[in-house]
Amino acid sequence: MIKYSIKDLEKFSGIKAHTIRIWEQRYQLLTPKCTETNIRYYDEDQLKYLLNVTLLLEHGFRISQICAMTGAEFNAHLKEVAGKGLNSKEDNMLNAAVNELVLAMLELDEQRFEKIMSSSLLQRSFEEVLIKVIYPFLKRIGVMWRIGEVSTAQEHFIYQLIRQKIIVAIDSLIVRSKSSEKYLLFLPKSEFSDLLILLFTYILKNRGKQCIYLGADIPFKDLQQVAQITKPDVLFTFVKAPASKLDTQAYIYELSEKFGDKQILISGNPYFMEELEYPKNVLLILEANDLIEMLTD
Q: Cα dihedral angle (39, 43, 46, 51), rounded to 10 degrees?
């Protein structure tokens, strides 16, 4: 059995240890267990419960309300807030899958990851798993980075497992007509985390688009050279951790100017990217569903 300290709970949920202790005293939120040497710890079920509490908190519930709920009421509210436009049973299943992925990451448990993926793929298509399970999970990791601490090893461990799945899925898609719209996907220089751009590549290719994926850390001069050779209709890039708003803004303007005859899609951290300006030929893609809606329109 995995044992979690209160610092682990703080790290994984984003709720400060001091706050958790206050909630324990005031509302009996959790009851820590003790080892034979009287060291306090929490088990997996308690961690899952706290992760679900954070989900309700994110949707406007107060901690006093949550702690006053019966088990049935708690589960009912989870079903209501877990997803958008989905039936309650599926909401609960998707939220559970995301929470299981969090635990697989924290415990570096590849077998657990494979079990979650296999179970999810039995019920829905690979794209649905990407959009409804993997993408929300990646957003959850982003929250952990903002308000807690996830080790580099844990993040890289789960990213590589997901990355392998997406690459295999992309390779399995049949290349369709060469007359279809062509997308050139890449990460700018000094950007190395390509997981989301791979996810977008799958969505595009699954809809019959031609995709040329350059990978990470692409200098602007090389990008121009590839574009001259391949003549894409659309450029698609992703900015995860820009050095500064000024640098990223300048990069957007440069893309717009040098590729004025192309549609340019750019994604990244919404808290940062929404504050920037975008020329007419540059479109900000904040969510995976934004891309799907654009392709549908």
A: 110
Which residues have CB under 8 Å from 294's CB, separation 6+?
283, 285
> CA–CA separation, 62 vs 49, rounded Å?
15
**Which residue in the block uniquely carries the two structure tokens 């990407």?**
130
pTM of the model: 0.69
Q: What percent of the chain has pLDDT over 90?
A: 51
* Alpha helices (H) in the chain, listed in sequence order: 6-13, 17-27, 44-58, 63-68, 71-81, 88-106, 110-123, 126-129, 135-147, 152-172, 195-206, 220-230, 245-258, 270-273, 288-296
Task: Give 241-259 as a DSSP string.
Answer: S-S-HHHHHHHHHHHHHHT
Q: Which residue has the tokens 């050139």?
A: 184
SS3 assignment, position 84: coil
Q: How confident is the model over 117-149, as pLDDT tens digits? A: 999 999 899 999 999 999 888 877 765 554 445
Distances in whole angstroms, Cα of residue 56 to Cα of each of 82, 101, 270: 9, 19, 22
CA pair distance 129, 264, nearest whole angstrom: 26
* Cα 110 from Cα 117, distance rounded (Å): 11
The DSSP 8-state label assigned to residue 280 in this structure reads: T
